[in-house]
Amino acid sequence: MLALAFLLGFGAPDAAEHQTALASYKQHRFSEAVTHFTEALKTEQPGSPEYDESILLLGQSYYLDTKFKDAIPWLEKAIVVKSPTPEAAYMLGNAYIFTQQYEKSVNAFAQVFGVKADSAAAHVVTARMMLHQDADGEAAKQAERALALDPNIPEAHFLLGEVAILHADIDDAIRHLKKEIEINPSFAMAHYRLGDAYSRREMWDDAMAPLERSVWLNPNYSAPFILLGKGYLKRQELANAEGVLKHALKLDPQNTSAHYLLGQTYMQLGKTEDAKKEMARWRELKGSSP
Predict the structure, then answer these.
(1) Cα gap 274→259, rounded to integer Å
(2) Distance in angstroms between the alpha carbons of the first and the last residue of the chain
(3) Are 227 and 207 in contact (CB under 8 A)?
(4) Among 29, 174, 246, 275, whose Cα sits 20 to 30 Å from the Cα of 261?
């Protein structure tokens, strides 16, 4: 095998260089890792375990060093080795987004999530990843493509509703979120975001029912409880506001909005000492926020 490596133009594998590269990678010294993996690859035979590890970690080192264009060719190699890792395809999909190669990201995320690249599901998961990376315009395009392939695909309308809220297009957000709930009625986040959309218009009578449905579907997520508490406070249903805001703080004790709203509720209930404690905690947390 060693003789064959020489005939093919490879020297003896430099184990020390590979180990140095690994050490740099594990210590998050990614620029150094790039240098050492590049050197190691000069002597490693394609198809060997060392070579496969080097191309994977070289691509990941470039990615983690935010050199996304340089990462792409190595991550592309890494996802076609004998045992590709989902992490490599995930990084590759994001690298395509960061370099505005949006269509290529669909194939990468399809591999990550085990769906066909030409499926509606692939466009939905890509839209979600794009939204994570603030590429909301491209996310909307992917969600629309998913709906063109399957008008009843779950979460596509939800993603379009999310994008509409980001752009303060509340009418469009409400339309898409209602459609999502028709398709996917047990999706707690769609109910929450519909309540959120109504709240942005101060339409609290419309907001309360979807917010209540959201907390019934997912009683372990604080955000709809906080918004529900705000709605009860706005409607002067103070006992209900107190109850849901206290529950929200059990779920998320550091939440500044919940402390503030609970403090306001206590003030209106005449619980002066409790109100002072909540407002003091709100100021403390607000002061420690970045």
Answers:
(1) 11
(2) 57
(3) yes
(4) 174
Cα 168 to the center of its chain, rounded Å = 21
Q: Is 187 helix (H, G, I), strand (E, B) or coil?
A: coil
Question: What is the pTM for the complete model shown?
Answer: 0.87
* Rounded Cα gap, residues 158 and 145, in angstroms: 14
**pLDDT per residue over 189-243, tens digit each?**
999 999 999 999 999 999 999 999 999 999 999 999 999 999 999 999 999 999 9
Cα 278 to the chain's mean position, in Å? 31
Going by C-alpha positions, the residue among 252, 246, 191, 258 that lies closest to residue 218 is: 191
In angstroms and rounded to an integer, the radius of gyration of the C-alpha atoms of the chain is 26
- Own/partner pairs, 68-76, CB within 8 angstroms, 24+ separation: 68/94, 68/95, 68/98, 68/99, 69/95, 69/99, 71/95, 72/96, 72/99, 72/101
pLDDT for 88-124, tens place per residue?
999 999 999 999 999 999 999 999 999 999 999 999 9
